[in-house]
Amino acid sequence: MRKLILGLAAAALLTVQANAETKIVCEGSSTVGPLAKAFAEYFMKNNPDVSVSVSESGSGNGAKAIINGTCDVADMSRGMKAKEFKACADKGIMPTPHVVALDGIAVVVHKSNPVKGLSLEQIRDIYTGKIKNWKDVGGVDMPIVVITRDTNSGTFETFENLVMSKQKMSDSCEVVGSNGQAKSRVESTPSAVAFVGLGFVEGVKAIDVNGIEANLETIQAGTYPIARPLFMYTNGSPKMGTPLYRFITLYLTEPGQEMVEEIGFIPVTSY
Amino acid sequence: MQRRARYTLDKAFTGLGTASVLIMAIVLLVLLVPITWRGCQAFIFRGTYFFRQMQKVEFDRGNTARLDKQRDQFLAAMAPAWGMINEFEAELKEMPRKDRKKYKANFRETKKAFEAVFGPLPDEKTPILPRSQYGQTRWDRANVKFESLYFREMWDYNTPTGQGVQLLLPRDKDFAGTKLEPLFDYVKLNLSKIMQPEVTFYWQFLVDKSIDSHFFGGIGPEVLGTIYLTIGAILFAVPIGITAAVYLCEFARPGSVLSLIRTCVNTLAGVPSIVFGLFGLAFFLNSLHVSQSKSVLAGALTLALMVLPTIIRATEEAIRAVPHSYKEASLGLGASHGWAVLTVILPAALPGIMTGIVLSMGRAAGETAPIIFTAAVSLGAAPKIMQVFSEPTPALSWNIYNLCTEHEAVNEIRHVQYGMVLALIVLVLALNMAAIVIRARISKKLKG
Lengths: 271, 448
Fold this sequence. Notes:
A: ten-stranded mixed β-sheet, B: mainly alpha, two-stranded antiparallel ribbon, two-stranded antiparallel sheet
């Protein structure tokens, strides 16, 4: 009996050593999350000896993880800030961006809301608290429930840069922690407004901004005003031929671009 | 008079006690029944033709001959529907421009809704994501999706208040007079012939990996990750905890230092779990670098810290409950203090210690906050046993939270979420049961 157990243990050890795996750890944005997850599963299916893991904790955490060297790929829905670059450089890390997709930040409302579109200025006024009722922007007479994201979110920072133009958001905004939460909050609240990545507009109504609808054409052409690239950062350019290199260049391949499109983002090239 | 008052008070107290027990039972029922009911639907449901196809392709399960027969039935039943779509496309091309414009957007939408129920059309390129490679795999979801094929959702804003009202317009009215019109009634009549629903017991849900971020497949990596983390935490916490408790009870000199240590342990027990999580990130990962990235090891260490106070306190209580005469008898027979602790006191205290370990295991399995930053990922392969030192893992508690807050299509996969909840509850219950059995056995053995 004991011999059998010993033999089994030895066999287990041997098999483990035989397929010594490489791993790729992705950390960061919840907007890039669905994309990273799709890439990861596609990649693992074709490379069974590589294990890819993805966590979605916000762009800020992605940056922190790459600064601390605890991830291989930092998913970020905004560019790295100077401060983060410096922190990287101080630790001898060279953050290298890969633009994996383009994304418009959709301003979403409940489907029963008659408002079709808002101008950037109106959106700003809603978030600063100047406009408090939907009737002021051509809607129904009901107070606006304003949903925003935590400061760790890349979507939040892009929105702040492109929409708020240095004005402070009102304190009465309700803060949620992820795109999914923002969406489901709007889905269940007829008077709510929120901003989410384009991959999260199922079940809610994305309204026009400055009269322009967020879709593939307007975002690729750059006419939709709240658009941004989605990044994956690595430490330096990965060595060609390594699993990390193949993973990070997946977005350039046709399957990669198709995944980007099927999830609802905009591919960077028109293949 | 006084006696009567006392009697009344006594009665009131008994009543209060019974009432609170009743309330607890009701709360448990209200909580557990829906969880169990909905959780079971992840395991037992009516699977469609697509479910069996998906199982064959992804996991190589199922009887090929039977599947081929079902495929023939599916193709035969679908052929007229696909034909109608093709005919309509041809008809659309011939139409005058004005009419074409009228149908174009609606047709695109209809086709999308059609593909959501019945999978991609045969002459189209296979989509890359598994979620769009198959039609609906569950009969209940197929019916929901069929509704949005049969009815077009529209919001009417011409109401007195201006608030939109949802209208469901049958699509066959939209396409009246065209070749597409009969499609809707055809698929309505033949839905079960196409989908071929069968009651399925999908126990592999517990061991399968997820396919396309939990759209299909099971929760194997999560279950395994939770087990790893729990066992890891106990492996670290139990030796340290018992040693500490023995020292505190038997060897430490009573005084201000000892009471300070006790206070510290008690305070540690009250620290919120998220603080442990942040501490684990800062200490194990960023300072000690126990692993390069998040890992099962770092998570288990953090969880161990969290359950340590519980184990210390339970062990202390158990040791104190051992009659003093045991120790005296042992010392009287010439045993040293250490030997007496090891051979007499600890075995006698074992049932109590086991209780502490049981409680800690349940807590370690269910906690989310300590593993967010140290071990848990929302997607990943289950690490093999040698990889626990370097690789992160999905875990039930974290993934339940992740699915309901961050997943992009949470409404489509509610059954997975409830399946996870049920699995976690059953896992914790099973752990407790196992430990209770072990405890009972040890007690029996000790009594001789």
